[in-house]
Structure to design on (654 residues):
């Protein structure tokens, strides 16, 4: 009995050494106190538990005098509690010093293991053995990390150097001088740093470029939160259909052609009404085709008007300012000149960039499209 | 439309689909001609007895839908699940699903140079990877492609590989903090960096993120996910790290040997991950 006690106190002393050997002196006291508090709490719980144990034992028809076996059990309990406390203390200490144990080449881990070994000599019940196992798991985990540490030591890979080199790599060797922390830097520097790194990184990956529609896809509006249980199913359906894009009814090449013809006819109609209204003033080509609100509509209009010109319903001419104008081809006015125009086919290419379009809109101060949407 | 598979023994079974395929080839719209090469090859495989009287046009349309679906799904870079493909695109064409997928994969390859790959064998989720080796000049052509997150991803991948294929989350943040990226602070480019790394990259399967057991305080570890191995390789990441260091990859012998072994094992099973073969 006394021998055991001796070994136990020995363990305690060793723990003291362990604590001292680790570099966290200023924290020791505080943590120790906390640990003690924590333990006291746990002890309290133990006490309660055991108290209830004994109380459940009480009703047993034991003789009132203390049986010697029972007496020893009580002693055992005291001892077990002590062992548990020591185990917990050990686990706590090792846990707290995880970093030091992993990163320094000290024997702390093996010392802790030895201590646990000593403690295990006194273990007789499952409860204490479970704590021993818990410690062992922790210790082996640390061992694994230590082994990994050893590995990286051999590899000479230094993250801190890597970080500095990253900055250098992008050409930011002056960063350290100008601002102490990278996070203090200007937004534009942050943007260009990650932008350049992104470019470099993409050349090392086979990432598929993502596919996007030029004008984006339809906005998937969040469907209204599902109505509460009471609501009708039909209501849900109505809500759901709000998310769907309008379905294309028919996709047919012929149908497409028809719409072109229709559009050409419609625009010809517009042009002819204009000519009837103002028979003497030719219409400016740009003012006619440009839709100030839509570049694509403008391009479409140019396309349709080209049919009108080809079919000889109107012609394009340059006025005195060398700007294109549209004028009617008067059938009654067939003189030699117009004859030669209509029979000698000329081809012209019109180029119009988005910027041209913008410039024309602003120069001609076009605020409204002459060709309005038919739909 | 008749969906039920017809009896194998009946002589008409062979002729029917054959006629459908052939007939539609002449009437089909011009778009179907563009894919003439692939439909030729598919005719034989698709004339399986289960094919109902579907015209080639219908099947072509289905393949086109599937291609579009895959491209749009790829926007978020989250692996595309087979169940989603079946639910949203394939529908009644379930019986010819493997062939539809094969044709879609062929077309993605012809038109876009993308390869449809099953993320992991038998995982039934797919990703698109670029088959064309990146060219330096491409970077300028690429234009604005959303947030430039690849650099961050590459750094994390590099750290993981150089540190022996596993790294704790704490280590990652210790590193990124030096580059002005904090787990709890909103970043100009990355928004919520913690979410980006531990959720978005994980869902895209670039990274694996799991709790390290028996740590107090709790810590997590990061490893490469399956997508990383498909889009890049140990050797490429090592070369990236080496380029940043302005050193030779061989200066890290352990990593170099590992990367070399990885290259060799890649070279051996050539078509193991192709989706078509798994069907």
């Amino acid at each position: 009995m006394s021998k055991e006690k001796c070994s136990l106190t020995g363990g305690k002393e060793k723990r003291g050494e362990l604590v001292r050997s680790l570099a966290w002196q200023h924290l020791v006291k505080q943590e120790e106190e906390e640990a003690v508090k924590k333990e006291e709490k746990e002890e309290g719980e133990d006490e309660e538990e055991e108290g209830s144990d004994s109380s459940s034992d009480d009703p047993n028809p034991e003789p009132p005098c203390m049986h010697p076996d029972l007496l020893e059990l009580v002693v055992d309990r005291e001892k077990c509690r002590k062992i548990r406390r020591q185990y917990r203390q050990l686990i706590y200490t090792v846990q707290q010093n995880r970093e030091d144990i992993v990163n320094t080449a000290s024997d702390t881990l093996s010392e802790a293991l030895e201590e646990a070994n000593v403690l295990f000599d006194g273990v007789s019940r499952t409860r204490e053995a479970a704590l021993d196992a818990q410690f062992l798991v922790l210790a082996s985990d640390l061992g694994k990390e230590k082994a990994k540490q050893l590995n990286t030591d051999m590899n000479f890979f230094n993250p801190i150097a890597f970080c500095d080199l990253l900055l250098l790599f992008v050409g930011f060797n002056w960063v350290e001088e100008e601002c102490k922390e990278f996070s203090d830097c200007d937004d534009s520097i942050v943007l260009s740093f990650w932008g350049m790194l992104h470019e470099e990184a993409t050349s090392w990956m086979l990432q598929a470029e993502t596919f996007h529609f030029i004008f984006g896809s339809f906005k998937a509006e969040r469907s209204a939160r599902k109505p509460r249980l009471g609501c009708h199913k039909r209501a849900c359906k109505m809500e759901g259909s709000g998310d769907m894009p309008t379905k294309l009814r028919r996709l047919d090449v012929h149908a497409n052609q028809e719409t072109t013809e229709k559009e050409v006819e419609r625009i010809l109609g517009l042009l002819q009404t204009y000519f009837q209204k103002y028979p003497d003033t030719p219409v400016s080509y740009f003012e006619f085709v440009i839709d100030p609100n839509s570049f694509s509509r403008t391009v479409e209009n140019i396309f349709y008007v080209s049919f009108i010109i080809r079919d000889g319903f109107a012609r394009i001419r340059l006025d005195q300012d060398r700007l294109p104008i549209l004028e009617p081809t008067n059938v009654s006015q067939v003189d030699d000149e117009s004859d030669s125009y209509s029979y000698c086919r000329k081809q012209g290419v019109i180029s119009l960039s988005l910027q041209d379009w913008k410039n024309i809109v602003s120069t001609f101060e076009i605020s409204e499209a002459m060709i309005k949407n038919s739909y | 439309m008749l969906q039920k598979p017809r009896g194998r023994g009946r002589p008409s079974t062979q002729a029917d689909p054959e006629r459908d395929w052939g007939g539609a080839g002449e009437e089909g719209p011009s778009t179907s001609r563009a894919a003439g090469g692939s439909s030729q090859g598919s005719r034989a495989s698709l004339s399986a007895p289960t094919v109902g009287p579907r015209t080639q046009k219908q099947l072509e349309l289905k393949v086109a839908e599937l291609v579009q679906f895959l491209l749009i799904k790829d926007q978020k870079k989250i692996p595309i699940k087979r169940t989603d493909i079946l639910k949203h695109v394939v529908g009644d064409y379930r019986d010819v699903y493997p062939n539809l997928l094969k044709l879609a994969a062929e077309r993605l390859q012809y038109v876009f140079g993308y390869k449809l790959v099953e993320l992991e064998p038998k995982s039934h989720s797919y990703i698109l990877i670029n088959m064309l080796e990146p060219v330096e000049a491409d970077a300028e052509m690429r234009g604005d492609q959303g947030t430039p997150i690849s650099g961050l991803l590459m750094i994390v991948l590099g750290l993981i590989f150089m540190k022996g294929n596993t790294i704790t989350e704490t280590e990652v943040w210790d590193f990124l903090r030096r580059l002005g990226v904090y787990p709890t602070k909103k970043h100009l480019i990355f928004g919520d960096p913690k979410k980006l790394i531990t959720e978005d990259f994980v869902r895209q399967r670039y990274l694996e993120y799991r709790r390290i057991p028996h740590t107090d305080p709790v810590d997590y570890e990061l490893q490469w996910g399956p997508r990383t191995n498909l889009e890049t390789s140990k050797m490429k990441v090592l070369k990236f790290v080496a380029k940043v260091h302005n050193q030779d990859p061989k200066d890290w012998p352990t990593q170099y040997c590992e990367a070399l072994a990885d290259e060799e094992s890649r070279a051996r099973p050539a078509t193991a991950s192709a989706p078509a073969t798994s069907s």
In short: DSSP finds 14 helices and six strands in chain B. The radius of gyration of chain B is 23 Å.
